[in-house]
Specification:
Layout (H helix, E strand, L loop, with lengths): L1 E10 L2 E7 L1 H6 L5 E5 L7 E9 L4 E7 L3 H7 L6 E2 L1 E6 L10 E7 L2 H4 L1 H9 L3 E8 L8 H7 L2 E6 L8 H12 L8 E5 L2 H11 L5 E5 L15 E4 L2 E4 H4 L2 E3 L6 H10 L3 H5 L6
Parallel strand pairs: 8-9, 8-11, 9-10, 11-12
Antiparallel strand pairs: 1-2, 1-6, 2-5, 3-4, 3-7, 4-5, 12-15, 13-14
The structure holds FE2/S2 (inorganic) cluster.
């Protein structure tokens, strides 16, 4: 069993859980994920690791309450236990010295990208971070991003269809200044539709754009095929070949979006959450 050692509410419906899982903490790397099961009746659900402490043997992940399992997780308190907590899974995010990296984050990605940004800074990169949130009330996790990023841009507000126009405007401004203010790489962990739009914005400029894709997953080991997607004309499994992919090579955006929406129930949509 895997005890919960801390539970913090970061914003309305946004939670951070800290789990005692020494084996996962020992091996975790930026961009990897875990698959957990709450109890005998629980489903297997993937969550991107947002932090870890190897000495304490703990692993953090951030989630938004949108469905049955996340509502159950939101009710857990320190002392409660998870039946299963498997990981770290997936390939770590690519990290090297690139120069100037722009990261674009929203939702759980605001927290889950922190280890990637930390690693990028350790490699001597300059990092500009754009954080997207519907409003200030639902903005969280600013402090570590402020400390790590050379520039932090807040893109608040929504157009009403889940696509945050302020984010694309902020990215457009940065791209317009390129190559005078050169951008060497973009890393995005935000909504599927925004990652798709970002990839199209950077493609003509030849700026490598890494997107973090989390389709529906079951086993997390490349056996079930649930997380398959098409990248560069080849079938790939997000759980073993990703979850980070070159956004310019992803050619199955429509399929990805449709499959994500398949499992969005009415209650999720009524809460104003986008399945994309
Ligand atoms: Fe089964 Fe990836 S989750 S193949």
């Amino acid at each position: 069993m895997y005890p919960i050692v801390d539970h913090e509410v970061l914003a309305p419906r946004v939670h951070r859980l800290r789990v005692q899982a020494p084996v996962v903490a020992e091996k975790a790397k930026p961009g990897q994920f875990v698959i957990l099961i709450i109890d005998e009746k629980g489903e297997r659900v993937p969550f991107t690791i947002s932090d870890w402490d190897r000495d304490a043997g703990t692993v953090d992940f951030v989630f938004i309450e949108v469905g049955k399992t996340t509502r159950q997780l939101a009710a857990l308190q320190p002392g409660d236990e998870l039946l299963s907590f498997i990981g770290p899974l997936g390939r770590p995010a690519e990290v090297d010295h690139y120069g100037h990296v722009v990261t674009v984050l929203s939702g759980y990605g605001i927290a889950a990208t922190v280890p990637i940004i930390r690693a990028l800074k350790e490699q001597g990169n300059t990092v500009t971070t754009i954080v997207q949130a519907p409003d200030r009330e639902r903005l969280f996790g600013q402090k570590p991003l402020e400390e790590l990023s050379d520039q932090l841009i807040l893109a608040l507000g929504t157009r009403g269809d889940g696509m945050m126009e302020s984010t694309t405007v902020a990215v457009r401004k940065l791209l317009d200044a390129h190559p005078r203010k050169r951008i060497d790489r973009v890393v995005a962990m935000c909504s599927l539709c925004l990652m798709r739009v970002l990839s199209e914005m950077t493609r003509p400029l030849g700026i490598k754009t890494m997107v973090h894709l989390t389709p529906v997953m079951v086993d997390g080991t490349g056996m079930c095929g649930a997380c398959r997607l098409s990248v560069g004309g080849t079938n790939r499994f997000a759980c073993v070949h990703g979850p980070e992919f070159d956004g310019h090579e992803v050619d199955g955006w429509e399929v990805l979006m449709a499959r994500r929406c398949t499992y969005a129930d009415e209650s999720i949509l009524q809460q104003g959450f986008q399945c994309r």
